[in-house]
Amino acid sequence: MYEKFYGLAASPFQLSPDHRFFFESSVHRTALAHLTYGLSQGEGFIIITGEVGAGKTTLVGHLFETLDKQRFVAARVVSTQLQADDMLRMVAAAFGLPIAETNKAALLRLVESFLLSNQQQGKRCLLVVDEAQNLSIAALEELRMLSNFQAGAQAPLQSFLLGQPQFRSLLASPDLDQLRQRVIASYHLGPLAPAETRAYIEHRLRAVGWRQDPVIADEAFAAIYAATGGVPRRINTLCSRILLLGFLEESHRIDRFHVERVADELRRELEFKGPARAAADGENDAPPAVAPSAPRKPSLETTDAPATVPPSVAQASTSQARGDQSEAAATDPAAPAQSEDVAEIRGRLETLEAIVAAQARALDQHERLLRQALTAATTLLDLGRD
């Protein structure tokens, strides 16, 4: 929608992974070095973890695009709570093998024959398993057993396991000790730095023909990083909506207030995660993208109170709550912390009240429009009869 307005050849911030938009940040460069090293070893497992949207799939896709298609045969499996037998069938299907009405023993022979046949032709098979944190221990053990196939000094199959941070906890299980011993390269893909966030955005825009339209203010780049924590997919989501807003307002300049406005909308509508919440939800042993910031108290200066809550009652309740807090502060050393909790809860309640009120007004407006449309349709029918 906004591509034509800004003279772009395609959407620069699509959510699906696309290796053509690969941006070599410092963390992606290091991860790529680990992948290249692991690939050069020709065996075992290579593990890449990272938060949702960190760019794991894009990274591996970029690596595979650089490989000689005459020497490598690649396949990809996206795991969805697969058990051992299902994992084996998915691997066979990913390599294009027939799996209908095939028992496990026959399927293992089929996969082994395929792998060894490619090895004899001088090819190595690469298997990418995405969303590996969803795999069962039995499924991971099935993958390890596939790595046992060997003829001569080289293994015919090498596997890449891509997963979210919790995959590392799964790998720590005592039941996966043998698999851990076969991991030859491992890396956790972190977020982009502030300067790299700007370079990433400009890189994707230039890839589709951006010529400084729209102009993006320095403060806007800083606001984008603050709202996304430098996670690529969050950046894509936010920037796509920002450009849509710019198109709707026919603006050829993106400023900080555009970013903050869209980020607030995303937090309300899609539960968009800022850096503080992302750090709380992410893995415990990985450093947070940015230092958590104090939660913003919603402002209701321009929002009407819901009709179901009389102002006098709301004011009395607020006064009573404040009085209770003051009394508690005088007698309880923990009162300041409790007061902050109460203030945060009150802020959330006010936000919910504002959302309900806004939805009620929207419903009223829709009802009026429907009544007007019904009146117009009735008038047209009467005119037709005359």
**What is the first-to-last residue Cα distance?**
44 Å
* Number of helices, where a helix is a run of at least 4 consecutive DSSP H or I residues: 15
In which order are the strands of the major sheet placed?
2-3-4-1-5
Taking all Cα atoms into account, the compactness measure Rg is: 28 Å
* Major beta-sheet overview: 5 strands, parallel
CATH superfamily of the largest domain: P-loop containing nucleotide triphosphate hydrolases
How many structural domains in the coordinates? 3
Strand content: 5-15%
**The CATH C-level class name of the largest domain:** Alpha Beta
Shape: elongated
SS content category: alpha/beta
Mean pLDDT: 77
Number of strands: 7
Chain oligomer state:
single chain
Question: Which key terms come to mind for this protein?
Answer:
Helicase, Ruva Protein, domain 3; 3 domains; 386 residues; 5-stranded parallel β-sheet; alpha/beta; 10% strand; single chain; Rossmann fold
How do the helices and strands line up, and which of them pair or pack?
Elements: H1 2-6, H2 26-41, E1 45-50, H3 56-65, E2 72-78, H4 84-94, H5 104-120, E3 124-130, H6 137-146, E4 157-163, H7 166-171, H8 177-180, E5 183-189, H9 194-207, E6 215-216, H10 218-228, H11 232-248, E7 253-254, H12 256-270, H13 275-281, H14 311-331, H15 335-385
Helix pairs in contact: 4-5, 4-6, 10-11, 10-12, 11-12, 14-15
Summarize, please.
The protein has helices at 2-6, 26-41, 56-65, 84-94, 104-120, 137-146, 166-171, 177-180, 194-207, 218-228, 232-248, 256-270, 275-281, 311-331, 335-385; strands spanning 45-50, 72-78, 124-130, 157-163, 183-189, 215-216, 253-254. It is of the alpha/beta class.
